[in-house]
Write a structure and sequence with these properties.
335 residues, alpha/beta, Rossmann fold, Helicase, Ruva Protein, domain 3, Zinc Finger, Delta Prime, domain 3, 3 domains, six-stranded parallel β-sheet, two-stranded parallel ribbon, 17 helices, elongated
């Protein structure tokens, strides 16, 4: 039976299925869903858990052996089968299909896949057999447009009451990385405690954890602060940050600037563009200044420079990529 992740808590309150297949390329959501099943199983007397980690040389007979082995501490146990790739092979497919045909009511099988879960895996015979015998939970990535809502929900769940700009700042910085989002939320709760969370709180917390980062560099460039931007670029280089991460962040920022500038040139109000592009208030001043300072031609030059830096970093063009980044900082910040 397929269910959505939002349905899992209510499903578990109604009792356990004989087996669970939890799969998707969001490790945090796979882990949390699996833990919910384990907690519900413990409440129903499944007090022992045996972990089986599927690797290249995994012996699928061990699954059948684990099912037949008596529990040491209780009459009921969980088999925690972790199959990262979602590809059990011929032997694994046979073993899983046979288990699905005759599940043991005193042994709960929980299968999780979190590195590779594609259409061929979802449509496989073994996945279909597990689906019919128990519950299948396909976990889909959080879409960029849904990330602010996801972050806001997580913040509120731990007692934080975020302002919209705080949510947007976190969403922009975390770029869909849910594991990083959980860590950032835990850190904010530790620093601030429950209650109101402002954009300034987020900014201070981030500044405490990293003096130099590519987002601060882009802020300096948009605001035209050349000296500070060069210092940031040097700090990133000393910290060993991969320049591809920096150029990626800069590309996203200047793409946003290009969209803002085009909308403003077409007669749309700045406030409308700020809302549509999710540009939080603390960043609006530098975005407005950059849009006035940089013509369309200069923005095209920025994208060409970023492309050149990327090629230099991969050995596909001559020149030093960090020197090119310094020149780009100076060019963008020039009046």
């Amino acid at each position: 039976m397929p269910i959505r992740i939002q349905q899992l808590p209510d499903h578990l309150q109604g009792g356990l299925a004989p087996l669970y297949l939890i799969a998707g390329q969001e490790p945090l959501l796979v882990e949390e869903s699996r833990d919910l099943v384990f907690a519900a199983a413990k409440a129903e007397g499944f007090l022992e858990r045996e972990l089986l980690q599927v690797s290249k040389d995994f012996d699928w007979q061990s699954l059948a052996d684990a099912g037949m082995a008596p529990s040491l501490f209780a009459s009921r146990k969980i088999i925690d089968l972790r199959m990262p790739k979602g590809k059990p092979g011929r032997d694994g497919s046979k073993a899983l299909t046979e288990w699905a045909a005759s599940p043991d009511p005193d042994t709960l099988l929980v299968i999780s896949c979190e590195e590779q879960w594609d259409k061929s895996s979802r449509n496989s015979k073994w996945a279909g057999a597990l689906d019919k015998a128990g519950v299948r939970l396909d976990i889909w990535p959080v879409k960029p447009a849904d990330m602010p809502g996801w972050i806001s929900g997580r913040l509120q769940a731990v007692g934080l009451k975020p302002e919209r700009e705080a949510v947007m700042m976190l969403s922009e910085r975390l770029e869909g990385n849910l594991l990083a989002a959980r860590q950032e939320i835990e850190k904010l709760l530790l620093i601030k405690g429950p209650g109101k969370l402002t954009a300034d709180d987020v900014h201070k917390a981030v500044a405490d954890s990293a003096q130099f980062d590519s987002f601060q560099l882009s802020d300096c460039m948009l605001a035209g602060r050349a000296a500070e931007g060069l210092r940031m670029a040097s700090g990133l280089r000393r910290a060993g940050i991969a320049i591809q991460l920096i150029t990626g962040a800069l590309y996203r920022e200047f793409t946003l600037l290009e969209a803002f500038r085009a909308g403003r040139a077409a007669g749309q109000s700045e406030q409308h563009m700020f809302r549509r592009l999710n540009i939080w208030q603390a960043k609006q001043g530098s975005m407005r200044a950059a849009a006035s300072r940089l013509s369309r031609k200069r923005l095209n030059d920025v994208f060409q420079a970023l492309s050149m830096i990327d090629r230099q970093s991969k050995g596909m063009a001559s020149g030093d990529e960090w020197h090119s980044l310094d020149r780009l900082v100076c060019a963008v910040c020039a009046a």
